[in-house]
Amino acid sequence: MLVQHYAFGFWHYRPLVGDLVNAPALSEALPIPNYLRWLWTIQPFELGQFGVGLFFLISGFVLPFAFQNMGWRGFAIGRIARIYPTYAAGFICTVLGIWACSAYFDRSFPFDPWRVAIHFFPGIHDLTLSRGIDGIIWTLNIELKFYLVCLLAIPLFRRGSLKVFLIPLALSMLAWLAIGPVAAAGGSTAARGSVLWLAIFFIDFMFVGVVFHFWIRRWLSFWQGLALVAALLVAMHLVWWKSLPIKFEYAWSYGASLIFFSIAFRLRASTLFKPRRLTEFFADISYPLYVVHGVLGFAIIRVALAAGWPASAALAIAACLTVALAAAIHFIVETPTHKWGRRMAQHVSARRAGDRQFA
Questions:
Q1: Does this model's pTM top 0.90?
Q2: Rounded to whole angstroms, how far apart are CA atoms 170 and 176?
């Protein structure tokens, strides 16, 4: 996603980037560097949407492992500790980046305290319809809604019940029936409806990842899984077709992510996936890098270009600084809070198991 945002998004969505970092839009007189034109000429699909699709599939595949020995309280504590402290640290960096960029271009900071405060709570702030500060973390908003759905279905996950797949299919059906009336209501009702339709759309896709989890646990046959994947993709695209202004050419990007994920799943025992120091490093810092790289990186590139730096240097310094900052957040914030969350989750789950034993 870093490559997509720095090498493509920054140059092709100049007014939007300027709005995000509170700076004048980059002049169209400044051409896109030739090496970036070449990079995007040869890409077979929309790289950002490919990354989004892969991220959601991996989430759906991995998350049910957390339910094996953990109740809903332990799961909630573990997820809160895993997500919110690291997000808060990264969001502070984003706000500071916007503030610094505003100061550089002699502009007032564009957000009031309430708007900043509500953005410390992803999963909720999108429903407030507050103007977005970090346009990158919309996927985290959806991820948290997926967690809530899964939280309510923990007993089904533990039993390996195929009834768990009725949940996304039912949500899609309800969305499909409600889209028209909600859109007709207009105003904030329609806007909040659009937020929910987008979440349901991607929850269907995350449950495709859950199918792969059920496969690896031998809870369903190959043909049962294939039928479920087909049903989830149909439900996903019915909601998409009726409600969302997403380009249909993105469908190939999501399809490519599913193909890539399927191949990786089939070859999971291959030496291709043997841990390596560099890939392990980026895997470790992936979440804090996701949180900090977007708007902060845009601000760094925009200021560097305004200061007369060549594009290559601006891109390099943004990438290096955001990776270094993500690594610092990983070691200082993410690792200790994640360990604490796991200990607390295990403690709560063990205590609840003990209470049930002696009840």
A1: no
A2: 10
